[in-house]
Write a structure and sequence with these properties.
There is one protein chain. The protein has 612 residues and is of the alpha/beta class. It has 3 domains: 3-246, Glutamine Phosphoribosylpyrophosphate, subunit 1, domain 1 (4-Layer Sandwich), CATH 3.60.20; 248-441, Glucose-6-phosphate isomerase like protein, domain 1 (Rossmann fold); 454-612, Rossmann fold, CATH 3.40.50. The chain is built from 18 helices and 24 strands. An 8-stranded antiparallel β-sheet has the order 3-2-4-1-10-9-11-14, with helices on one face. A 6-stranded antiparallel β-sheet has the order 5-6-7-8-12-13, with helices on one face. The protein has a 5-stranded parallel β-sheet with strand order 16-15-17-18-19, with helices on both faces. Strand 7 (157-165) and strand 8 form a beta hairpin. Helix 3 packs across helix 4 (126-139) and helix 15 (455-462) crosses helix 18. The longest helix has 23 residues, at 430-452. The radius of gyration is 25 Å and the shape is globular. The N and C termini lie close together (11 Å). Bound molecules: fructose -6-phosphate. The site of fructose -6-phosphate has 15 residues, from helix 9 and helix 16. Residues 288-427, 460-602 form the SIS domain.
């Protein structure tokens, strides 16, 4: 939820720290701050608001020192003010701490520390850690790592913590529990951050950390220990993303860049998935043919946009593999008594791999004996590490808060799983799989075609910019598309938007239609059950009540009653979401731009939601 970065090395520390924070700002952007390792007393600056406020406050007197920590915040405890911004310091201002997550027992700790004479200045849970660490460090005769070890034992909750002390300013100490932290291994310099994007410009060597592992880094050393102080072997890996992937590359916003990266993201996720003898290759599933044949149920858990990919999974997997699929919002899953046994496959979908609601649902499923397969875009993040199997999507870093390319690749992953399960359990013939896979390979080109013709849609969008309600209608596989269109519009344009199944309209929502209400209808592809005709009737129903209707329809499909028709290329009906979602992303993007909203960092949101 917050972004964290630490640096020690030869550079003037404020440069990699501010650069890192800029890359992490998607994680939280209501305040930002840095602590620099000036000997004697730390240099601290922190400001409410965007990172640019902090940058403006850092004037020419900025010390040229070589270590520090930086933080960009998404407020949980205490509003977004200068005082509540991180870093938090002890009373000598010699020790500074930054934190992502929640310290659940902070009230108790604060009372104990205040009773010992510590003076608190903020309303945050984090400040308790600064005071606690300060005491523990004294007990351990200046050993910050030993102090961190004891502090962690006293803390409840989820956290990534980084700390620095003015007496040994080139040492940065970090720890993680249920919250992300990666180490970047440089030459004569080292980094720690919530996400590799923060240091990818400087190094592509990273170390993943396990739960409760403590990192002590200097410019030339990285030591990882467990809570007992025992040395832990570093798990190093190469970062496959390149630095340019985390930059805007000439686009006005990351979101627009990411929308335009979708053809490549989809193509990359599909690469090498069909063998010469037409078998879907998904070794990552780690499931034998017998295990697949004995599956009785699949439950998909995810949040937000990823949940919409889960809804697509239901249609695709039930159709191809004939296995019943439930889709559940992750935050609801573990608070009922879900029936899970070894014949249930749990599929978790998460772009970041850090979403706390999804992580907790995964843990619940595993504890109940379920097998968990995760679809994820972020290498070595927590959810994949705790799952039995992982299928990585290849969307590359998604920086804009609103998810676009990650969704399309999640849907592709879901198709691959559906085809594989159906092929192995005999519901699909090899030739059917081959033909469907060929159609999948056509999708990147078809997305490109849509993107080449979006300009008129952008113009049209501007005529809706002052509406306060927009409704989306879909049927069958178009229903999750309608939900996604509405979610994108809400989060980016701050407009009341709802997605409905076309057939539900007459059961209540039609009362929302008024003169001029925009309604975007996704005309079902294919003609199964005459769903397209049913949607055309829904269009007439809303039009008769004054709605302005935009229809998304396949090339050549018959459309009536629409003020505007957005054409998408023809594809098998189940693949329609990959195409029909794209104009809706552009619609939401343009609405946000016209309304003057912050596209990449919409209000009140954060990219990675690491609190429940
Ligand atoms: C919406 C959006 C969110 C995320 C949700 C899950 O545009 O981005 O709804 O989809 O927070 O995030 P991940 O996929 O990281 O678990």
């Amino acid at each position: 939820m917050c972004g964290i970065v630490g640096y020690t090395g030869p550079q003037s520390a404020s440069i990699p720290l501010i650069e890192g924070l800029r890359r992490l700002e998607y994680r939280g952007y209501d305040s930002a701050g840095i602590a620099l390792g000036t000997p004697g007393k730390l240099f601290i600056e922190k400001k409410a608001g965007k990172l640019s406020n902090l940058e403006n406050a850092l004037d020419a007197t900025l010390p040229n020192v070589h270590s520090g920590i930086g933080h960009t915040r998404w407020a949980t405890h205490g509003g977004p003010t200068d005082t509540n911004a991180h870093p938090h310091v002890d009373n000598d201002e010699k020790l500074a701490v930054i934190h992502n997550g929640i310290i659940e027992n902070y009230t108790e700790l604060r009372a104990q520390l205040e009773a010992k004479g510590h003076k608190f200045s903020s309303e945050t849970d984090t400040e308790s850690v600064a005071h606690l660490l300060s005491d523990l460090r004294k007990e351990h005769e200046g050993d910050l790592t030993a102090a961190m070890r004891d502090a962690v034992k006293a803390l409840r909750g989820s956290f990534t913590l980084l700390a620095i002390h003015a007496d040994k300013p080139d040492v940065v100490v970090g720890v993680r529990r249920n919250s992300p932290l990666v180490v970047g291994v440089g030459k004569g310099e080292n980094f720690m951050a919530s996400d590799v994007a923060a240091f990818i410009e400087y190094t592509k060597h990273a170390i993943e950390l396990g739960q409760d592992e403590i990192v002590t880094m200097t410019p030339t050393s990285i030591e990882i220990t467990d809570l007992e102080g025992k040395s832990v072997k570093a798990k190093e890996y190469e970062i496959s993303w390149d630095a340019s992937a985390a930059q805007k590359g000439g686009f006005a916003h990351f979101m627009l860049k990411e929308i335009f990266e979708q053809p490549k993201a989809v193509a990359d996720t599909l690469i090498g998935r069909l063998s010469d003898n037409n078998q879907i290759l998904l070794d990552e599933l780690h499931m034998s043919a017998d295990e697949i044949r004995s599956l009785k149920k699949i439950t998909v858990i995810a949040c937000g946009t990823a949940y919409h990919a889960g809804m697509v999974a239901k249609y695709a997997i039930e159709k191809w593999a004939k296995i019943p699929v439930d889709v559940e919002i992750a935050s609801e899953f573990r608070y009922r008594d879900p029936i899970i046994d070894p014949s249930t496959l749990i599929i978790a979908i998460s772009q970041s791999g850090e979403t706390m609601d999804t992580l907790m649902a995964v843990r619940h499923a595993k504890a109940a004996g379920g097998r968990v397969l995760t679809i994820c875009n972020t290498n070595s993040s927590t959810i994949p590490r705790e799952s039995d199997a992982v299928l990585y999507t290849h969307a590359g870093p998604e920086i804009a808060v609103a998810s676009t390319k990650a969704l399309l690749t999640q849907i592709i992953a879901v198709y691959l799983i559906g085809l594989h399960l159906g092929q192995v359990n005999g519901s699909l013939k090899d030739t059917e799989v081959r033909d469907l896979y060929k159609e999948l390979l056509e999708l990147p080109g078809k997305i490109e075609q849509i993107l080449e013709t979006v300009e008129p849609l952008r113009e049209l969008t501007r005529t809706f910019a002052h509406n306060n309600t927009v409704l989306f209608l879909g049927r069958n596989i178009g229903y999750p598309v309608a939900l996604e269109g509405a979610l994108k519009l809400k989060e980016l344009a701050y407009i009341h938007a709802e997605g409905f199944a076309g057939g539900e309209l007459k059961h209540g929502p039609i009362a929302l239609i008024d003169q001029g209400t925009p309604v975007i209808a996704i005309l079902p592809a294919g003609h199964e059950h005459s769903l397209d005709e049913k949607m055309l009737s829904n269009i007439q129903e809303v039009k008769a009540r004054g709605a302005r209707v935009i229809v998304i329809a396949e090339e050549g499909a018959h459309v009536e009653g629409a003020e505007h028709v957005i054409r998408i290329p023809v594809a098998p009906a189940l693949f329609q979401p990959v195409l029909a979602t794209v104009p809706l992303q552009v619609f939401a993007y343009e609405m946000a731009v016209v309304r003057g909203n912050d596209v990449d960092q919409p209000r009140n949101l954060a990219k990675s939601v690491t609190v429940e």
